[in-house]
Automatic annotation (TrEMBL):
HAMAP family registered for this protein in UniProt: Endoribonucl_YbeY
The species this protein was found in: Fulvitalea axinellae
Regions that span the bilayer: none
Source superkingdom: Bacteria
Details of cofactor binding: Binds 1 zinc ion.
Residues noted as binding Zn(2+) in the record, renumbered to the chain: H107, H111, D117
Family according to the record: Belongs to the endoribonuclease YbeY family.
Sorted UniProt keywords: Cytoplasm, Endonuclease, Hydrolase, Metal-binding, Nuclease, Ribosome biogenesis, rRNA processing, Zinc
Protein name, per record: Endoribonuclease YbeY
Length: 137
């Protein structure tokens, strides 16, 4: 089950049904089971507070993914997304808001599926997986 919430902002996910079906498809193609995936769309300040409080990172970011699963191969997570940061990054990278939003949404899922992005090689592979998922949208 995928749930969509907002905190401290007005936001409505366009094509929510299509987007959730797409996410479910990506999860299934990687052989994982979806238990519960909560997307919480929020402001930069809200996400910054979470970053400081829970991760001890005093930086702004576009997404924070909390893996709540206690079972291998099962997705159970809370994913916080800064709508403001998505808008800013879309403009900075010359992308549409919707494209950047989908990239960030699936980025969080890919982390839950075990993909990392700390090293240059991991980051390159993550980008390739994002592109594959976006092509399937």
């Amino acid at each position: 089950m995928i749930n969509i919430f907002t905190e401290d902002i007005e936001f409505e996910l366009s094509e929510a049904g299509k987007t959730t079906e797409w996410i479910e498809g990506v999860i299934e193609r990687h052989g994982f089971e979806l238990a519960e995936l909560n997307y919480i769309f929020c402001s930069d300040e809200y996400l910054h507070k979470i970053n400081v409080e829970y991760l001890d990172h005093d930086t702004y970011t576009d997404i924070i993914t909390f893996d709540n699963s206690e079972e291998e191969g099962v997705i159970e997570s809370d994913v916080f997304v800064s709508v403001e940061r998505i808008r800013e990054n879309a403009s900075k990278f010359g992308k549409t808001f919707e494209n950047e939003l989908r990239r960030v949404i699936i980025h969080g899922v890919l982390h839950l599926l075990g993909f990392k992005d700390k090293s240059p090689e991991e980051a390159e592979n993550m980008r390739k997986k994002e592109d594959e998922a976006l092509a399937a949208y």
